[in-house]
Target: NudC domain-containing protein 2
Amino acid sequence: MSAPFEERSGVVPCGTPWGRWYQTLEEVFIEVRVPPGTRAKDVHCSLQSRHIALAVGGRELLQGKLFDSTVTDEGTWTLEDRQLIRIVLMKTNRDAGNCWTSLLENEYAADPWVQDQMQRKLTLERFQRENPGFDFSGAEISGNYSKGGPDFSSLEK
Model:
């Protein structure tokens, strides 16, 4: 079980006109398709705690207030194969109950089914962290998993 949970269990992406976004307990990943041959010098990316702006060749692709706050110093972007920009944002609030329902405050919301799947995935990721000897990557979950699922921390061991 040395591979990260999301690599073993897959991700739940939310499609957008420019690409997709998905999340783990700690991070939000944004993948933006750009014209083949794009160079890093053509990319302008501004990552702030609650704001993001991305332009390629002077054309704005993504701009607005993020759904929740992020750690500014931890945000990164990379240009992959000169046709995909991958942005990684570190969530400030990293518990399973902090499932972003949209990327920006009023844009790129996940549909209800995708939101449900995202919340299930984050809850299973939380269970994996709390129980490192078990593998939850192929598990199914039902019942009370909203807001991160049940809290067992007060139970005696």
